[in-house]
Design a protein that fits this description.
The protein is of the alpha/beta class and 319 residues long. The protein has a single domain, classed as Metallo-beta-lactamase, Chain A (4-Layer Sandwich), CATH 3.60.15.10. 20% of the residues lie in helices and 29% in strands. It contains 8 helices and 18 strands. A hairpin with a 2-residue loop joins strand 3 and strand 4.
């Protein structure tokens, strides 16, 4: 494509004041049509990205994830004077509530019947996180996500699949199931799914998928919801699928948070270096320890994620 625009609609963080000399990152006070409303956006656990692709003067728009609630998603859209009237489809990165909680509201906001909603069939199993204590095994059930029937009732058209698929007139590529080839990137220990009436190990979270754009003269921009498949696995698969060796940017949650994931930070940084990213935007579930380590390791490419940020790639600017 000629250019790509990514707007953060939902994220854990808001930061409008830190200085940044880059001309490919704008906060909503700089780009929103009514900048006095921009300060009203809210942060919340989860992620949602509005993705716009351009080839010549033809624009396509996709919503990647929907955050934890429709209320938060709609509030931030209104605060930035955005709407989903031109959104052609919704892509869900994986089946966790903080990425799918706003789905029904998002479908309603597009005001389109038969809106394509790209999902993996494993997303819809109830899930829980299990851990051991001296008192025995403990667990926390994840909030339920919208069912296929609820998606249909809201006006969505679920498109189930496990393989890569081109979307938005093939300007974007949604990955299939991502191979786990990196030794330390195996998934989320303790994650289980209710399958056929039985709680089964679901550490790999095979429904975790990334969204890939290929920008002229730049290379790949890879978007990830939580990176349960592992950041390095995701980048290797993105390169394999597209045949494009250049990775320009990674934006999204990297899931390097918590005691079980923090030991992977250094290995991830070391394996990320050969990709020579021009921009790295860790958001959502990356965790402050990983963010600080990455900011030190990649001072020229690291960019703070924030609700309302607009990331620009390729020719032209926001229209």
């Amino acid at each position: 494509m000629d250019r790509l625009e990514v707007i953060v609609l939902v994220d854990n963080t808001i930061d409008f004041s830190s200085s940044d000399s880059r001309n490919d990152v704008m906060n909503p006070r700089q780009w929103a049509s009514e900048s006095d409303l921009a300060h009203m956006v809210k942060a919340g656990h989860g992620l949602s990205l509005l993705v716009r692709t351009y080839i010549d003067d033809v624009r396509h728009e996709i919503l990647y994830d929907t955050g934890a609630s429709g209320e938060l998603l709609s509030h931030n859209l209104n605060s930035m004077n955005l709407n989903l009237n031109e959104t052609e489809g919704v892509v869900l990165s994986h089946g966790h509530w903080d990425h799918m909680g706003g789905l029904i509201q998002a479908i309603s906001d597009t005001n389109r019947k038969g809106l394509p909603v790209y999902v993996h069939p494993r997303m819809f199993y109830p899930r829980r996180f299990v851990w051991s204590t001296p008192q025995g095994e403990q667990f926390r059930d994840f909030p339920l996500i919208p069912s296929i029937d609820e998606i249909k009732s809201a006006g969505g058209r679920p498109i189930l699949g496990t393989d890569p698929v081109g979307i938005a007139e093939n300007t974007l590529l949604l990955s299939g199931e991502i191979p786990r080839i990196t030794e330390y990137e195996k998934g989320m220990p303790g994650h289980r799914a209710l399958i056929d009436g039985e709680w089964q190990d679901d550490e790999t979270i095979l429904d975790d998928r990334c969204l890939i754009a290929n920008v002229k003269e730049k290379g790949l921009v890879v978007m990830s919801g939580c990176s349960h498949a592992g950041l390095i696995n995701i980048l290797k698969e993105s390169v394999r699928l597209t045949g494009e060796a250049r990775v320009h940017c990674v934006i999204g949650g990297l899931h390097l948070i918590g005691k079980k994931n923090e030991p992977k930070i250094l290995s991830t940084i070391n394996d990320l270096k050969p990709f020579d990213l021009s921009m790295l935007v860790p958001t959502h579930c990356t965790g402050w320890k990983a963010q600080h380590a990455m900011a030190r390791a990649f001072p020229d490419s690291y960019v703070q994620g924030s609700v309302g940020n607009l990331y620009l790639f390729g020719q032209g600017a926001l229209t």
